[in-house]
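Protocol step 4 of 5: obtain the predicted structure for the target chain.
Materials: sequence only (see below). No template structures provided, no constraints applied. The aim of this step is simply to have a reference model before the mutagenesis design in step 5. Sequence pasted as it appears in the construct record:
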Amino acid sequence: MSSNFSQLLSQLLYGQLQLRPSILKALKILVDSNVAMSLGTDVSSLYCPITLQEARENVDFLQTQAESWLAVLLNVYGTVGLEARLVVGDVIQSWMSIAGEQVCFHSKEI
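Step 4 output (structure tokens):
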């Protein structure tokens, strides 16, 4: 995802509440499907337009975006009601699964 596209999606997550469920679902599918394909998971029953190598490259790229997306998703998580937190939490879990050690969250001292 280009930074402009990521920025647009982030803005939509914050400002267009009616689009939030669709964007969250897409962000989860983006990670989960590429991870599954990169691991060689049997997706023979699915239409698979990319190769195993392309899926691995996609996951590598998504890992570089994980810290930014996790920051956005955690901010969204903090603004939604209890009923929506499960959905946002599932997306956070997907992105955390690829984040690796490069993701570092800092807490502010009070």
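Step 4 remarks: The radius of gyration is 15 Å. Residues 52-79 form the longest helix (28 residues).
Proceed to step 5.
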